[in-house]
Write a structure and sequence with these properties.
By secondary structure, the chain is an alpha/beta fold. The protein has 14 helices and 18 strands. The strands form three sheets. The protein has a ten-stranded mixed beta sheet, sandwiched between helices. It has a six-stranded antiparallel beta sheet with strand order 5-4-3-8-7-6, covered by helices on one side. β15 and β16 form a beta hairpin. α3 crosses α4 and α10 runs parallel beside α11. The longest helix has 18 residues. The radius of gyration is 27 Å and the shape is elongated. The termini are far apart.
Length: about 475
């Protein structure tokens, strides 16, 4: 049987293949016997040339053979094939324009078109696409507009369809919003017309090739070594944790770091709308929600998965983010033997986090007295870790807060560590320090029972480094 990896991915061009029409502007293959070099005068001319070569390439591609190749092998053969097409269709180009055509068509065939160069820059944390010609990126906490463009909205929609179809999802007028992910784990959200008035909008939240470790967060001054030691002890001792924060505050990164402390001999079940957690433990079961199909059937919600996970004998349950009625099931799981579970929630401070959790429980559709809900929260949640993206674009763990119980109808909390902002310097960098509040956590007995001592963590009120 032949080895398809060695098979050509482009069929041979027959002798006598007609030359392509001369380039816009009247510059052909020769003038007065001297071979001329075609240089596109405008972006429009260059795009026309690229589209024509791309179309000819697609007519001759052996897609089956291409699919069997690695990205590197496919890219190498695509480049050779495009070069051959340029020569055989009598399209003389300058070396710079020729390399650009080959590179951009290779991106179109094998990757995500104009987004590929951006995705190769691992310093880019967010890509924000507001229509075909309005694209921003975030690097080092700062937003900047790029010169990257799609040809038109149809081109953008083609790339969007390629992304969402890879994870078995769809986006169209009947379902104009969708969450998806890239092969590297980056999170994608898409919303298209008629909901998006100025063309399709896509937001890509990127994650590093190598997941950050807690030591990296300490090195970035997102927290102190004492705070990281305390968080490690909390996870190992199986306390239930909610990571709270606003959009882009680093909740998922922090959750990944905390999950790394889970012992490798435990069974972990993760539940996400779009899989992005990067757990390193060998015994990890990853579950992902599913939207309804064209007939409106087949939807699987986070609540369905949380309920099902309880039948899967998990040691710990990790919910990427609670957004609705699954919060009640999560609290019940935490209260019925699944200690050490973790989740994230959108909120600006620990007090607001608990209030929002109360509101989400009410969305479960089960009529419960508010006091009963608060009792569930107090008995389930041990610690709230608050993340924030501050004014200079950096991300910090600004509070570690313990939930200590109820007094009358009020949930009681106490801050253990916090970040105190003192000002902003002339370069726009936020200045401040971390400090221990002087409160000794009530969960210290649970740490001791788990055989954990915190020799390097001092809770006396003072500035920490």
């Amino acid at each position: 049987m032949s080895d398809r990896r060695n098979a050509p991915i482009v069929s041979s061009l027959r002798p006598g293949t007609p030359a392509a029409p001369s380039a816009p502007g009247g510059e052909g293959a020769s003038r007065g016997g001297e071979r001329m070099v075609f240089r596109p005068k405008t972006t429009h001319e260059f795009e026309e040339l690229k589209v024509r070569i791309h179309r000819e390439l697609l007519e001759k591609l052996d897609l089956v053979a291409l699919a069997s190749l690695s990205r590197e092998q496919g890219e190498s053969q695509i480049r050779v094939a495009i070069g051959r097409l340029l020569e055989q269709t009598s399209t003389p180009l300058s070396r710079v324009d020729r390399d650009r055509v080959i590179e951009e068509i290779a991106y179109e065939v094998l990757g995500l078109g104009p987004l590929d160069p951006i995705l190769q820059d691992h310093n880019v944390s967010d890509i924000l696409i507001n229509g075909p010609d309005n694209i921003y990126i975030e690097k080092f906490g700062k937003l900047e507009r790029t010169s990257v463009r799609f040809r038109d909205n149809a081109h953008l929609m083609q790339i969007i369809d390629r992304i969402v179809s890879r994870v078995g999802r769809r986006v169209d007028e009947s379902s104009p919003m969708v969450d998806a992910r890239l092969p590297d784990g980056s999170r994608v959200n898409v919303i298209i017309p008629p909901l998006a008035l100025d063309g399709a909008v896509m937001s890509i939240r990127r994650f590093g090739r190598d997941p950050y470790k807690i030591e990296d967060l300490v090195a970035f001054r997102s927290m102190t070594p004492e705070m990281s030691d305390l968080l490690r002890a909390i996870v190992v001792a199986r306390l239930n944790i909610v990571v709270s924060g606003g959009t882009g505050s680093g909740k998922t990164t922090l959750l990944n770091c905390l999950s790394s402390f889970i012992p490798s001999n435990e069974r972990i079940v993760t539940i996400e709308d779009s899989a992005e957690l990067q757990l390193q433990q060998p015994h990890c079961v990853r579950l992902e929600t599913r939207p309804a199909n064209l007939e409106g059937r087949g939807e699987v919600t986070a609540r369905d998965l949380v309920r099902n996970s309880l039948r899967m004998r998990p040691d710990r349950i990790v919910v990427g983010e609670v957004r609705g009625g699954e919060s009640l099931d999560m609290l019940q799981a935490m209260n019925t033997g699944h200690d050490g579970s973790l989740t994230t929630l959108h909120a600006n401070n620990p007090r607001e986090c608990l209030q929002r959790l109360e509101m989400l429980v009410l969305m479960a559709g089960i009529e419960l007295p508010v006091k009963a809900i608060r009792q569930q929260i107090c008995s389930a949640i041990d610690v709230v870790v608050q993340a924030r993206r501050i004014a200079d674009g950096t991300r910090k763990t600004i509070k570690i807060t313990e939930v200590i119980g109820m007094e009358a109808d009020t949930v009681l909390t106490q801050d253990i560590f916090e970040f105190v902002q003192t000002g902003v310097n002339s370069n726009g960098i936020v200045e401040g320090y971390f400090r221990a509040t002087g409160v000794r956590p009530t969960f210290m007995d649970r740490l001791a029972a788990a055989g954990i001592t915190l020799e390097n963590v001092k809770f006396e009120g003072r500035e920490t480094t």
